[in-house]
Write a structure and sequence with these properties.
Blueprint (H helix, E strand, L loop, with lengths): L1 H38 L6 H5 L8 E2 L6 E3 L2 E6 L12 E5 L4 E5 L6 E10 L2 E11 L5 H28 L7 H7 L1 E6 L5 H13 L12 H4 L2 E5 L6 H4 L1 E7 L5 E7 L1 H16 L3 H19 L7 E3 L5 E7 L3 E5 L8 E5 H10 L6 H7 L7 H14 L17 E6 L6 H5 L2 H4 L32 E8 L10 H4 L3 E5 L15 H17 L12 H4 L7 H17 L5 H25 L10
Helix pairs in contact: 1-3, 9-10, 10-12, 16-19, 18-19
InterPro entries: AAA+_ATPase (IPR003593), ATPase_dyneun-rel_AAA (IPR011704), Methyl-DNA_Rec/Restrict_Enz (IPR052934), P-loop_NTPase (IPR027417)
GO molecular function: ATP binding; ATP hydrolysis activity; endonuclease activity
Keywords: Endonuclease, Hydrolase, Nuclease
């Protein structure tokens, strides 16, 4: 009991120290921002920054910062506007999870805030202290620092709760969660794909089951699968141009996401939504309902709408990403594509957008685009619609997503992954480390970057004896953890066979593999795994040898001296294995029920 009291006292003192130290950092950050705005026309001063104790530059990421408080590293960012000399109106002091924001977007309504970054235009606000025209007092800074630690503690408690609850069944589950990317390598038939699917099931079900057949449809949707081959490329995996029939019947091309990018988008949406508040989820649901009701009750190509400048347009069609409109009077192009997600963001924010420049400011763009004038017109029409109240909802929990790449070495890795070499690195996950894709110039926002979120895990499989192993890109090797699977490692899969065939199969496999590794030029990488022998559920031992094992082994020994003699030794070892097991089983005494002992 005394020990517990001493620990509590020590923790309390550590908390006080951490709050005091962070208060000093935030105070200096605020004072520097105030000096820049009051004394230096809002411009950044390197000389002034270098005279500081903590805030010694324009910005510093938390990961590379030397400010260590309460076990957390703290960075900061003043964000110069549009590459100019003036500081952005929001400054941040941040840990990896939470920001303390000094927001002077409106100098008459300044604020101190604690927020959690979600994505470029979305943050969860945990605490807010209105300042008016005044700079924050010491008491207000202490208050926001206390709010910060309270929010940080909540995040840590949530993480710990999740970790404490999950107990995985697969021996490699925690390895994958720690490493993010792993590759199972080994001889043919060692059950690498079987193991990958079992591992994925364990991860997405939070340890409930390692069998895909036991998963719910929602859990299955969080497992992606692709098999690489020599013709597979970047456009299949990431994104590329695909033929499309236009609304007028003509043939064209459109940019479409590949299988991996679609999968990552699904995981990113889950991660983003899990970090939103109930209020934000409710607002988005309401906005979606209004949009659905609007588009269900208009005539595509018939109903006419007008921009604030009087330009007439009709809606030709919509899909998951775009609203296609026709503008007969537009001299540049009579067909315009709008980003549907931008319109959703405007409706969710529920601000009073009156002019196009209001939309520019909302999206942080220095100059407007013609698309924003059409967005504004639709926004005004949709906003006034009356829809049934949206039922209360709660943010979804963060979930794990597992993507399996079977025979990963059979594809041309550098061609398929492209710039994703960087994005899949476990140390560079998240939106702050995105990459521009090869088709970025065709995106609605050419500056938007593609990133791999923290809740995506990648499993690859590869055969060690495949000749394409040697060409496996070294840049990729650094980003994966390689785990060797030997023929004996997955012998448990043979439990699917009934006795006595299971025991006969095990002895047969062991006898054959012993013969293989004793041949000069071959080794354990050529041992044959249990996946081949599972075919004995439906085949005889002779059929398995003639139709599957013999052709494979002939490929092994082709070009060797005495090929025929080696194959005879293999066949003899194979036959000896299962015949010996059959004889052993026949000699065992049985009980009255017929069970052998």
């Amino acid at each position: 009991m005394i020990q517990t009291d001493e620990n509590d006292l020590l923790k309390s003192e550590q908390n006080k120290t951490a709050r005091s130290e962070l208060t000093k950092v935030v105070r200096e950050f605020v004072d520097y921002s105030d000096w820049c705005y009051r004394e230096n026309e809002g411009k950044y001063s390197r000389e002034k920054a270098q005279a500081n104790t903590y805030i010694t530059g324009k910005k510093k990421s938390s990961g590379s910062s030397s400010i260590l408080i309460g076990g957390l590293k703290f960075g900061w960012n003043f964000n110069q506007s549009w590459g100019g000399a003036k500081l952005w109106s929001k400054g941040f002091v941040n840990s990896a999870d939470v920001n303390i924001v000094y927001d002077r977007s409106d100098e008459s309504q300044k604020e101190l805030k604690v927020e959690q970054y979600v994505h470029e235009s979305q943050a969860n606000i945990f605490a807010n202290i209105p300042l008016g025209t005044q700079s924050p007092t010491d008491a207000q800074i202490e208050e926001i620092v206390n709010d910060f630690w309270e929010f940080e503690d909540q995040i840590n408690d949530s993480k710990k709760e999740i970790q404490d609850k999950v107990s995985y069944k697969n021996q490699f589950s925690n390895v994958l969660l720690e490493s993010k990317n792993i590759i199972f390598r080994g001889a043919p038939g060692t059950g690498k794909t079987y193991l990958a699917k079992s591992l994925a099931a364990d991860i997405v079900s939070n340890g409930r089951s390692t069998a895909t057949k036991d998963l719910t449809d929602e859990e299955k949707s969080r497992i992606g699968f692709v098999q690489f081959h020599p013709s597979y490329d970047y456009t299949d995996f990431v994104e590329g141009l695909r033929p499309k029939i236009n609304d007028d019947g003509s043939m064209g091309f459109e940019l479409q996401d590949g299988v991996f990018k679609k999968f990552v988008s699904q995981a990113q949406a889950n991660l983003d939504n899990s970090q939103k508040s109930k209020e934000d989820i409710q607002k988005e649901a309401t906005a979606d309902n209004k949009m659905d009701a609007f588009f269900e009750n208009i005539e595509f190509g018939g109903d006419t709408f007008s921009t604030v400048n009087g330009s007439k347009f009709t809606i030709a069609g919509i899909d998951d990403r775009h609203i296609r409109i026709d503008v007969p009077g537009n001299k540049i192009s009579d067909k315009v594509s709008l980003n549907i997600h931008e319109l959703q963001s405007m409706l969710t924010a529920n601000q009073d957008f009156k002019q196009v420049k209001d939309v520019n400011v909302f999206f942080g763009k220095p100059h407007g685009t013609q698309q924003y004038s059409y967005d504004l017109a639709l926004y005004k029409k949709i906003k006034i619609r009356n829809t049934r109240p949206t039922l209360p909802t709660v943010p979804p929990k963060k979930k794990n997503f597992v993507f399996i790449i079977d025979e990963i070495n059979r594809g041309e890795i550098s061609k398929i992954f492209g710039e994703l070499f960087f994005a899949i690195d476990p140390g560079y996950r998240g939106t702050t480390n995105g990459v521009l894709t090869q088709y970025a110039n065709l995106h609605d926002d050419p500056g938007s970057k593609f990133s791999i979120p923290e809740n995506v895990y990648i499993i690859g499989t590869m055969n060690d004896i495949d000749r394409s192993v040697d060409s496996f890109d070294f840049a990729m090797r650094r980003r994966f953890r390689f785990i060797e699977i030997k023929a004996q490692d997955n012998i448990g899969m043979l439990d699917e066979l009934d006795e006595p065939k299971r025991q006969m199969t095990i002895q047969c496999m062991q006898s054959l593999n012993d013969a293989i590794v004793n041949v000069e030029g071959l080794n354990e990488n050529y041992a044959i795994g249990g996946a081949y022998f599972l075919k004995l559920k439906h085949l005889t031992f002779d059929a398995l040898w003639n139709d599957y094992l013999q052709p494979l082994l002939q490929d092994y020994v082709r070009g060797m001296n005495d090929e025929e003699g080696i194959m005879q030794k293999f066949e003899a070892a194979y036959n000896r294995g299962y015949q010996s097991a059959a004889q052993d089983n026949a000699e065992r005494p049985t009980d009255p029920d017929g069970n052998s002992h």
